[in-house]
Amino acid sequence: MPTALVCCPVPGAQVLKLAKAGHPIFTAVNDLTDVEVIDLPTDHWPMWSRTVALADAIVQAASH
């Protein structure tokens, strides 16, 4: 199943690296086979700090 990973505050490349290294917070990422990584540099609550950018990221992911 296609999956969009909107990564904030940890950049997507680092999430993938930590998942591959077996970091317990990110191990489930290794089970995904069709992943689109979208970086959204902001704090832990993008729905408050970057509302429009988050909405754009969701629309982008849904359009694929």
Summarize the structure.
The chain is an alpha+beta fold.
Q: Topology, please?
A:
Elements: E1 2-7, H1 12-20, E2 34-39, H2 46-49, H3 51-62
Parallel strand pairs: 1-2
Structure write-up:
The chain has 64 residues and is α+β, with helices and mostly antiparallel strands. The protein is built from three helices and two strands. It has helices at residues 12-20, 46-49, 51-62, and strands at 2-7, 34-39. A two-stranded parallel ribbon has the order 1-2. Strand 1 (2-7), helix 1 and strand 2 (34-39) form a beta-alpha-beta unit. The longest helix is centred in the C-terminal third of the chain and has 12 residues, at 51-62. The chain is flat. The model has no long low-confidence stretch (mean pLDDT 94).
Helix/strand/pairing class, anyone? alpha+beta
**Low-pLDDT runs:** none
Strand content range: 15-25%
Termini separation (Å)? Answer: 12 Å
Residue share in helix: 25-40%
Mean pLDDT: 94
Strand order of the largest sheet: 1-2
Number of helices: 3
Order of helices and strands: EHEHH
Q: Rounded to an integer, what's the Rg over CA atoms?
A: 12 Å
What global shape is seen? flat
Largest beta-sheet characterization = 2 strands, parallel
Count of extended strands:
2
